[in-house]
Amino acid sequence: MNMTHRFLIPITALAMLATAGTALAQVAARAPDRGTVQQLQKLSAKPTPKLADGRVDFNGTWDHLGGIEFVRPVKRADGSICLIACGPAPGGAPPAPFPPVQTDFPKYKPELQAKVADLKKRQVELDSNLRCQAPGVPRIGPPAKIIQNAREVVFLYDDVNGAFFRIIPTDGRPHRKDVPASYLGDAIGRIEGDTLIVETVAFNEDTWLTDNGAFHTKDLKVTERFRRVGDTIEWRATVQDPAILVEPWSLKPQVMWITDIEVEEPARCEDRDVPHIIDGSHHDNPR
After folding, report:
1. What is the DSSP code (8-state) at residue 32?
2. How far apart are the C-alpha atoms of 257 and 260, rounded to whole Å?
3. Which ranges of the chain would DSSP assign to H, the alpha helix?
4. Is the separation of the CB atoms in 159 and 67 below 8 Å?
5. What is the dihedral of CA 12, 13, 16, 22, to 10 degrees?
6. 148 close to 198: Cβ distance less than 8 angstroms
7. Most CB atoms within 10 A, among 109, 140, 229, 258?
8. 189 versus 84: which is more confidently predicted?
């Protein structure tokens, strides 16, 4: 198998690529402009829906080319298969749209640079994201579906590591005091105008912020902003961890757009890669 980047994908997920490729082809046929600037401009020009109480409506299934879609298998003339960054598909078809890749990196304090470098070197060994665990926040990216009522919003994720959810109160209650630390943390939210603001704390220390050794402490705080414009949402996330970071770190914004393709149960993530590792190289963060 020819890969432009060598990386770990759970074997079960690889077994589903043929089926996933067929499903993605069907979606592409229904929406050939999916994720293009032209499509997003058209959708953002629509009126922004509101609930009966006047608040902006964030309900919906949202497309942002997430989940397993960073894997785009292309069969080459020699019979080999390229998985990502493969260029034009056979027949001259352009490559599918691709979410923005995070190119900058959290700025760690000087005394922690050696630790980051060591974690980066040992990513394949130490990164829990490569072991079917929840990616953490903000690494998991924007949700695939949002369910909203007067008291809370629920985020559903269709991630390459499986299905995850977050329940976020929006009725003014504070963070819980007795909640154990977790992969996705404890979140509370509020709506200000056209923007849903979500603040999350109480993380465990088992996840990274992104690839290449970007660790965090238990004092991590992540603020996400979901700004609805027409039938699009702009997602932004900012990380604060003052004990280790010189300054807050903001991720590259992503745009989500409404879709009628419903979220389905993803393939189970099963880690059976370790015996097959050839070297310690890994993929860039696709989220």
Report:
1. T
2. 10
3. 11-15, 17-30, 37-44, 113-121, 123-126
4. yes
5. 180
6. no
7. 140
8. 189
Residue with tokens 């996933």: 20
Q: Which two tokens stand for residue 13?
A: 């997920």
Map residue 187 onto helix, strand or coil: strand
User: pLDDT tier at 267 (50, 70, 90 boundaries)?
Assistant: confident
For residue 85, give the DSSP letter. S
With 0.70 as the threshold, say if the pTM is over it.
yes
222-250 confidence digits (pLDDT tens): 999 999 999 999 999 999 999 999 999 99
DSSP line for 115-170? HHHHHHHTHHHH-GGGGT----TTTT-S-SEEEE-SSEEEEEEEETTEEEEEEEE-
85: region left, alpha or beta (phi > 0 left; psi from -120 to 50 alpha): left
Show the CA angle centred on residue 98, arms to residues 83 and 22, nearest 5°: 55
pLDDT band for position 8 (cuts 50, 70, 90): very low
Between CA 262 and CA 62 the distance in angstroms is: 9
